[in-house]
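Problem: given the chain below (403 residues), write out its structure.
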Amino acid sequence: MTSTALGRDFRLLWSAAVSSRFGDALRTPALALLAATVTRDPRIIAAVTVAGQLPPLLFGLLGGVYADRWDRRRTMAVVDGVRAAVVAALAVAVALHRASVLVLLVAAFLLAALGTLFDSASFALLPALVPPDALPRANGRLQAGSAVAGGFLGAPAAGVLFAVAPALPFALDAVTFAVAALFVLALTPAPVEGTQPRSGVRRGSVWGEIVEGLRWLYAHRTLWRVTVLTSASNLAISGIMAVLVLYALDVLRVPPAGYGLFAAAAIVGGVVGALGSGRLAARLGTVPALGVVLAAETVALSGFALARHPVPGGFALAVFAAGTVVWNSLWASYGQRNVPAGLLGRVGAAQRMVGLLTAPVGAALAGLAAAAFGTVPVMGAAAGVFALVTVAAWRALRPVSPA
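Solution.
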């Protein structure tokens, strides 16, 4: 799944990302299972989930600042080393039956907060490792590897390992972070250091640098419009995910025992989309391809909203997931190609922040609407949102700079 044409440093970055994703896929469900053994209060269990979702919104822009200030290779290695220590400590606490609710909340929050810095540094590092025209393919390979490691390997193994010993998935997660740190340290230092500002250059305040990144993003017409379109589509995607299990069980008549297989359709679609994103960008150009992807997603989501059987529903979900992954790969690649190296961390963080702002709104609206009207209207409304976003994209994404 890696590519020799992308070079040694990309293979190392790919290996680090896949290793970390495998560990994440072990830890996330294990953390939920662990919370359920500590308490049956749904409010507290939900609080553990929220603790892992807040840091990207609270610290995402700050992570972008330091991803531009510090050496990105060393930053990623240090962050993974610290995350390995945090998860190892959690594994020890679990083994000793000392994992209280407070411990789970702190661990979830701290790991997610560290992840914001890692994600910003990783996003900014990739353009220093591969040629500009290879960025869509490189991002696709990263997403495909992460999907396989997380969806096909890590997630199914998490429950089994937790049943054997509750501390086991956390201990293995600590190992994956340590391995990822070693892969990152093996990257060639020179290209990474070249992206950082020269020593002795006077910096502004942290807030000033955040504003600089936001202003650059807003001033770049195409990148800003793509970011807003991403935010609008995430409103629908978050709503879909919030009620997906209910729609699958009640409307598509997916047997409970077969829900895992049904959900795997989205993973398969995501992998196929990730591996094909580079070819699509090479054939159509990055910006024109974004409009085509949105149109395909709208058709797939409309079919999903009309489906009443697991097979056509699963196929439509796979196509929709493929489009989502392609969009994410091309969106990231366009930014990495057009943003100045010294601003990549901040602008990338701003992109992710704006893109994620609508997610909790979409989930909340979907939950309320499903409770009042059922899940079918939610899926229809999501398809309608995507249709509007597609029309807006075809009008707005007229290339004004090289794709």
